[in-house]
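To: structure subgroup
Subject: Chain for Friday's discussion

All,

I'm putting the inputs and outputs inline so they're searchable in the archive.
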Amino acid sequence: MKKQGHDLTRRNFLKSAASATAVVAFPYVVPSSVLGANAPSNRITMGCIGLGGMGTNNLRAFMGEDDVQILAVCDVETGSREYGHWYKNGWKGNFLGRVPAQKIVNDHYTNKKANSGFGGCSAYVDFRELIARDDIDAVTVVTPDHWHAVISIMAARTGKHIYCEKPMTLTIAEGRAMINAVRRHGVTFQTGSHERSSGKVRFACELVRNGRIGRLERILTPVGLNNRTGPASDWKPMPVPEDLDYDMWLGPAPWEPYHVDRCLYKFRFLLDYSGGQTTNLGAHSIDMGQWGNGTDDTGPIEVEDLGGEFPKDGLFTTPTNIHFRARYANGVELICKTDAKKWTGVRFEGTQGWIELGKRFDTYPKSLQDSVIGPNEIHLYKSAEHHRNFLDCIKTRATTLTPCEVAHRSATPGHLG
């Protein structure tokens, strides 16, 4: 079936998607340095793919940096209130999507005297048109999880640096394919696991890594309840809204009839597009646990279900209750469980005390909070701001705080669970 407006058949699209997630077989020409002739005024030029709540949040963050120029935005949604979920960043349910994002960018640069020569922000439905531009140095990928690998790998092939939201992938195999592409093409990659840019999180993990609670025995990683309820098993297909390119939204996922509760924010609760709160919120909680456990380059050797529950009927298919245990080669066990009182967080339990991160930072004994990490002890990667760290690493070619390999390892326990 040919999509109206552009030459794209589902068969050809799936072929290109499959080739993107496979191990790269052919060399690809990587464009010139990020600070070369294609970067106006020596700025890092960016394109933003996915402009829902978090996508617009990231766009605003990068747009606020003086050494960044947003040239293009891309989203399959023209503009919809369905994108405005629980984020409280001043939008209050206002429309989100490519047209509102384009206006945000145009208004921002038009109002800045330093950008008087700004030629306007382009808006695309198909991300491939954005990626094909040789005047864009970096992209943000803030789409449903089932799109992360395809877009990121295609972006890496063109030498574009990538800021990809968590969880990094829909599957473990996709994570390995992304790592291979990023390594092969030498691009800078940052995952949106922003908890690592928190000073309290870094300090807590340093306390654990330096033995302040004795030998680490257990890590508790709570995840919040599902924050949406799906339609019952008698749900009926709905007409596709005119402002949504539904075929492009589905992309590499199996075709299913449209329903408003399938797309935009609520994709989080269908297994074809996401792992539910296990991978969504677990991407933060488990990531902090991995950092404190010193297992950024490895993962659990055993995973055991302790009573997770899935829906018995209805449209939504991701777990309604999460409960599993992962065991590591160093003897530490990580327990991930749904917690009605906590959204994300982590608790480290050792032979001589414990440390808990969530809404507050608590320890036993209390004196741990006044502990000082000595110059000869383990000091973890320090970053004051996640977006800034990505930009700095593009320029210096240093490894980011949450590179592809680290995000892959943090996502894996959730996928296994």
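Points worth raising on Friday:
The first strand starts at residue 44 and ends at 49.
The radius of gyration is 21 Å.

D.
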